[in-house]
Amino acid sequence: MTRSEVRRRLAWAWWRQLAYTLAPLLAFNLLFGADQQTGVLTMPLFIAGLASMFVSLPLFGAYKRALVTTEKALDSDEEPAAWLELARCRRLAFLGAGLPAWIAAIAVFAGLEAIPLVLLALSSVVLLYLYRIPRQLG
């Protein structure tokens, strides 16, 4: 597999993960959002969503180290293994980046308002954006 094919697959994986991250929130909000009353769990769920962003810190460090390793391995025998390790680290980091939006999807049932839902979804999108493959790596 060539480097451009690997980059293309990783780019598609990013877009797919973006859809996986936001789809539950959008679906739950469309299906159940209008019927919910504001409850006691709205503020704790919002705070949990914000706190879940910190899960990404160690995952981002591992991803950054894998990026550096992949860059050093370009045009060598270790390049395929480096790309695989980068993809593995990125898959784990995607799960951490999706947590705020997934907690927001759960918070729909507690009646969380639209602005906090958008903030949590946007924080997941920003975290996911950190895991795009840089152009210099190709």
Question: How much beta, percentage-wise?
Answer: under 5%
Terminal Cα separation, in Å? 13 Å
Radius of gyration based on Cα positions: 17 Å
Mean pLDDT: 91
Could you list some keywords that capture this structure?
single chain, 138 residues, mainly alpha, 5 helices, 0% strand
Q: What's the layout of helices and strands?
A:
Elements: H1 3-32, H2 42-51, H3 56-73, H4 79-107, H5 114-129
Quick recap:
The protein is mainly alpha-helical and 138 residues long. The chain is built from five helices and no strands. Helix 1 (3-32) packs parallel to helix 4 and helix 1 packs antiparallel against helix 5 (114-129).
Account of the 3D structure:
- By secondary structure, the chain is mainly alpha-helical.
- It has one domain (3-137).
- The protein has five helices and no strands.
- The chain has helices at 3-32, 42-51, 56-73, 79-107, 114-129.
- The longest helix is centred in the first third of the chain and has 30 residues, at 3-32.
- The two termini are 13 Å apart.
- The model has no long low-confidence stretch (mean pLDDT 91).
